[in-house]
Amino acid sequence: MSELNGRRVLVTGAAGRIGLVTVEHLNGLGAKVTALSNVEHPDLKADRVLIGDTRSETDVARALEGAEYVVHLAALPHPSAGTPYDVYSVNVVSTFNVLAQAGALGIDRAVIASSINATGVPFNPHEIRQPYFPWDEKAPTDVADWYSLSKQNDENTARMAWRRWGIDVVSFRFPHVNSPDVLERMADNVRVKPASGLREAWSYLDTRDSAYAVELGLTASLSGAHAFFVAADTTTAPYATEDLLDAFAPEVPRSRRFVGREVPIDLTAVRTVLGFRAQHELDLPTLPLEL
User: Fold this and answer.
1) pLDDT at position 1 over 90
2) pTM for the whole thing?
3) Percent of the chain with pLDDT strictly greater than 90
């Protein structure tokens, strides 16, 4: 039996792509879910469903009533999801509001959605590359867009909340997360245009695995504020990773070789600290890369 059985978990952004699947997953574990969303959704089923704004102190306070755990997924998820002001302000104010109130209430654990974009690489307007492969959480950042800045600051907020109130926070640097059919279409595009996947190191995650990661983030034995890259073990490309890197990032140092379609991201931290390993991967051949 899951240790979340019978426990009250607040999920913000509950009607979003990751939120819906996470709520369903937590329901299956026996958790009592409070779902907070800014929109109604016919597929959103929870013990308690609230419509509200994560920037509102009143709405968040109401949603946190009785909560023992928090999963904060609410955000504008792309630089073009609103004006630069809206994207940045919605994301950072929401995260501060949720974590500050949860911390002040004495809630022990929160999981928040950061992003691979906290590195600044994927949406950067300049021709930059990762500093090395396998890419890891210690790599320097180069932020030049408001969405990435908001995610970087969300991780800073998590560290502040832990230092101020002692709430342990797990921040997941999610790559592109989607359903299997959408991921398969993305893989078809990468097959034709393999360079298009470089900015995210050809990484991806099935929505079901994102919900599983959230479960582990809530229940793992840890303390502090931690940011983890989380992704499937393999890439979106039907080509050997070594061939991709030789072709599209030959100048970037590699500390080791990659086997087959192994994703060039170091997943050691999320594996060892949380015990996470993706359970749903793209079934792709390994084809010769012809440019």
Assistant:
1) no
2) 0.97
3) 99
Interior angle at CA 119, CA 19 and CA 233, nearest 5: 65
Whole-angstrom CA distances from 53 to 13, 14, 63, 188 are: 9, 12, 10, 37
pLDDT tens sequence across 86-124: 999 999 999 999 999 999 999 999 999 999 999 999 999
| DSSP assignment of 112-135 | EE--GGGGS-TT-SS----SSBSB
What is the average pLDDT across 132-153? 98
Q: Coil, helix or strand for 169?
A: strand
What CA–CA distances, in Å, run from 99 to 193, 226, 280? 40, 14, 30
How far is residue 110 from each of residues 92, 162, 257, measured CA to CA in Å?
16, 10, 35
Alpha carbon distance 44, 21 (integer Å) = 9
- 22 half-sphere exposure, CB direction, 13 A CA radius: 33
Dmax over Cα atoms in the chain, in whole Å? 57
Q: What is the pLDDT of residue 291?
A: 82
> Residue 156 gets which letter from DSSP?
H
State CA 179 to chain mean position distance.
14
Rounded distance between C-alpha atoms, residue 137 and residue 143, angstroms = 15
The closest alpha carbon to 11, from 29, 37, 30, belongs to 37
Instruction: Return the exposure string of 18-34: e unless at least 16 CB atoms fall within 10 Å of the residue's CB, then b.
Output: bbbbbbbbbbebebbbb
> Residue type for 175, please?
P
Residue 236 to residue 120: CA distance in whole angstroms? 20
Q: Are the beta carbons of 228 and 274 closer than 8 angstroms?
A: yes
Sign of CA dihedral 166, 146, 78, 117: negative
**For 9, which DSSP code?**
E
Give me the chain's average pLDDT, please: 98
